[in-house]
Amino acid sequence: MQFHYRFSPAMLTSITHRATGAVMATVGAILLVWFLAAIAAGESAYATFRDVFTTSNGHLNIVGYVVGIGLTWSVFQHMASGIRHLVMDTGAAFELKTNQLFARMTFVFSIVMTILFWLWLGLK
């Protein structure tokens, strides 16, 4: 018996949806607890927290950008995938080509929205 298994955009979207949810929950919870503990512990603890993500002049450093952009992309990807699933829950988009197109569009949407969001932040 031989199986022909081909990885598809829908499979990647499903895996990414689960991964982004887990990453946002885990990283978000760790950062929130660390932030709240740093505030409660005093000025020097908060300065340590802040210095992990920013330079001395208050701008984001590489860690700040990686975490910020990564979490932003995760939010947009998870949201787009969730909307895709919501549409599919109505009984639509089960035709193979439409399903694959919607799966690809979740990645296009999340990348474009992440870029636009960070450009918007840069203008502020």
TrEMBL record:
Binding-site residues, heme: 78
Subcellular location(s) of the protein: Membrane
Topology in membrane: Multi-pass membrane protein
GO molecular function, one term: metal ion binding
Keywords: Heme, Iron, Membrane, Metal-binding, Transmembrane, Transmembrane helix
One Pfam family it belongs to: Sdh_cyt
Entry superkingdom: Bacteria
GO cellular component terms listed in the entry, alphabetical order: membrane
InterPro entries in the cross-refs: SQR/QFR_C/D, Succ_DH_cyt_bsu_CS, Succ_DH_cytb556, SuccDH_FuR_B_TM-su
Cofactor: heme
Annotated cofactor note: The heme is bound between the two transmembrane subunits.
Function: Membrane-anchoring subunit of succinate dehydrogenase (SDH).
Family membership noted in the UniProt record: Belongs to the cytochrome b560 family.
Subunit field text: Part of an enzyme complex containing four subunits: a flavoprotein, an iron-sulfur protein, plus two membrane-anchoring proteins, SdhC and SdhD. The complex can form homotrimers.
Name recorded for this polypeptide: Succinate dehydrogenase cytochrome b556 subunit
Species: Sphingomonas palmae
